[in-house]
UniProtKB/TrEMBL annotation:
Record-linked CDD domains: TlpA_like_family
Subcellular localization(s) per the UniProt record: Cell envelope
UniProt source species: Pontibacter korlensis
Keyword list, A-Z: Cytochrome c-type biogenesis, Disulfide bond, Redox-active center, Signal
Cellular component GO terms, alphabetical: cell envelope
Protein name: Thioredoxin domain-containing protein
Top-level taxonomic group: Bacteria
Length: 471
């Protein structure tokens, strides 16, 4: 009978022990608290913009947070506007103390996971906060060879600091692998973005990298499981697939650009790294790419991805964006022209359409008008229509401006951004520019402004390609 009596108790103890291995506990005390609670913010999937928040009210100056943790992860502990990264593994019981106004500088850890998080805080304070270790604002000014020397020096310093700390303070093997991934891929992403970033910041001509500049890419181990915990690895993958597409001759202006990135990830990566990289590309393609190629990628990706939540998220995103994306049919509308005629967007099928939503009381629209008129003049005689839809409440003022300034192009009027005829475009502000092909499909849902010299080239390039295809 005694055995029977003890059995439920033993089972309960075992169950509690198992559950303890699927969670982490963070408790602590705050001197001079800035608010009456703390929050632990986790990101279960780096591709789904949904936070998992666990809030704990302060009991005096103390708090306790219990969160599910099935595998190693990085989260954020937030108190008021102060935020610190926290590394967690199943079973951690972490205790910390800090001053509310000096979070990172006064942070002290004890308990299981203290060594790992003490190092992470010191690493962040030194390598993420000190300007000498940052690419911006000064190190980006270095020429290619000097910039590589800076990155090499920083990486060596980071590795040595980890080794020195680990020699005196036991660290979990998973944490060490995570930190090495952070070090390696922060190096890789900074080097991969160097030329483009330098051009943008310094306004200098983009130089062609030397042949040896990217050789480090072949030495990267992209299949380590710890990579998937690293935020730097996630950021690197976005740059890496773009680099591979550019090397293959694809630019953002080409409809196949995101498909080229997706395919490159399929060739260069395996396992979860491949899934992560391709999902990143798919997400961006849904929002900015061409519908035809996005649908091809979704058909390939969904069956092989076992993350049900991610597949569902991508499906929802696709459904929300497919009506206003490159390759989809532009929503038709019918509006009154200056002369009072009813004109529809569909009236212009067979011609390229540069669609401009604007307003007479919009300052930027007014600034762009001379550029638009110049663009129209340069393309006169070509098979392109400049369709201008004014949105506003003062139709008389619009007529006066269009007729008084003898504005070229086709001019229509809609009664505000919420006018029923143009509601499918979901306009939030003007100006807004679109480029439509001869079948009424979007070539671009963010066409270049008339003041951009490439706007002329974009239109001309499509017209030339179209003409060549008809021969």
């Amino acid at each position: 009978m005694r055995i029977i009596t003890l059995l439920p108790l033993l089972l309960l103890l075992v169950a509690n022990q198992l559950s303890a291995q699927d969670k982490a506990i963070i408790s602590g005390k705050i001197t001079n608290p800035l608010s009456d609670y703390v929050e632990l913010i986790a990101y279960p999937n780096p591709l789904i913009p949904e936070e998992a928040k666990t809030e704990a009210e302060l009991d005096g100056n103390s708090f306790r947070v219990e969160v599910p943790v099935k595998e190693a992860m990085v989260a954020e502990l937030q108190h008021d506007d102060e935020v610190v990264q926290v590394y967690l593994e199943p079973g951690y019981e972490l205790n910390l103390s800090f001053n509310g106004g000096k979070f990172l500088k006064t942070l002290k850890y004890t308990g299981k996971g203290a060594n790992e998080n003490s190092y992470l805080a010191a690493y962040t304070s030194r390598f993420d906060e000190e300007e000498d270790y940052q690419v911006l604002p000064d190190n980006i000014k270095f020429e290619e060879e000097e910039f590589t020397e800076f990155l090499d020096y920083r990486r060596n310093d980071q590795v040595k600091s980890l080794e020195k700390y680990a020699a005196k303070n036991p660290l979990s093997e998973t944490f060490k692998a995570f930190m090495l991934a952070e070090i390696e891929f922060s190096y890789a992403k900074d080097k991969l973005s160097y030329h483009t970033l330098r051009q943008q910041i310094l306004q200098v001509a983009l130089k062609k990298p030397s042949p040896a500049f990217y050789t480090y890419l072949s030495k990267l181990d992209m299949q380590r499981p710890a990579n998937l915990i690293s935020p730097s690895f996630v950021s690197f993958l976005r740059l890496y697939t773009a680099y591979l597409a550019n090397e293959a001759g694809y630019g953002k202006e080409q409809p196949e650009y995101y498909k080229a990135r997706y395919d490159a990830a399929g060739r260069k990566l395996q396992g979860q790294a491949q899934i992560l990289a391709q999902a990143q590309v798919l997400k961006r393609s849904i929002q900015q790419g061409h519908l035809k190629y996005t649908e091809q990628m979704l058909r390939d990706f969904t069956p092989k991805n076992t993350d049900v939540a991610l597949n569902a998220y991508l499906a929802r995103l696709q459904e929300a964006n497919k009506a206003l994306t490159a390759g989809s049919i532009a929503p038709d509308f019918t509006l009154k022209s200056v002369s009072g005629d009813s004109i529809s967007l569909s009236d212009f099928q067979g011609q390229l359409v540069y669609l401009n939503f604007w307003s007479t009381d919009c300052g930027l629209c007014t600034v762009e008008q001379p550029n638009l008129q110049q663009l129209i003049s340069k393309l006169k005689g070509r098979k392109v229509v400049f369709l201008n839809v004014a949105v506003g409440s003062d139709e008389a003022q619009w007529r006066k401006m269009v007729q008084g300034k003898e504005l070229q192009g086709v001019h229509l009027f809609a009664d505000g951004l919420e006018a029923e005829q143009i509601k499918p475009y979901g306009l939030k502000d003007v100006p807004a520019y679109y480029l439509l092909d001869e079948e009424g499909r979007f070539l671009s849902v963010k066409a270049r402004r008339p003041s951009d010299h490439e706007a002329f080239n974009d239109i001309l390039q499509h017209l030339n390609v179209r003409q060549a295809s008809l021969k």
